[in-house]
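fyi for ur records
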Amino acid sequence: MEVLGIGIQTLYLYTLIISGSLIILYLFFGDVIEGISEATGFLNPVLILAFLTFLSAIGYVLEALTGLNSILIMVISAIVSIILDTLLNVFVLIPLANSEESLVYTEDSLKGRLGNVIIPIPENGFGEVLIESISGRISKPAASFDNKVIEEGKKVLVIDIKDGVLYVVPHNQY
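which gave:
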């Protein structure tokens, strides 16, 4: 079978080379294209390029190794590509997107958290507080909210954050 005067097997090979090259370019310049997926919501460039790569690779292999009709090969390739693309999205892309968000913290999210003083906080001065969480440890400069001395090893409660400095009070555990 020929499409636009080019053999279908050659067309599959060209599509495979072009889509594979675009995937490599996307790895380097993907941030520029991310706006497209944010704007449209459903047109994710990674999924489109992966679909084209799967389709052309499966089509090329089936054309080379089997004697099936080219239209049947195109249908089989499309169905398998949709399945593989769905699996890629569900088991790789969505978990990656969720894990990236879970490791990020904002300064406002630290309010109300408990921490340990690792460098004593003097009156009207700065020390350091270590806050432990599931994703790791966060060490931030700290000052006393009440301008009182807080000794090393004490548990503190974060009351406020200004200019990257935690304002804390001693936490009494009952």
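The first helix runs from residue 8 to 40. thats all i got for now
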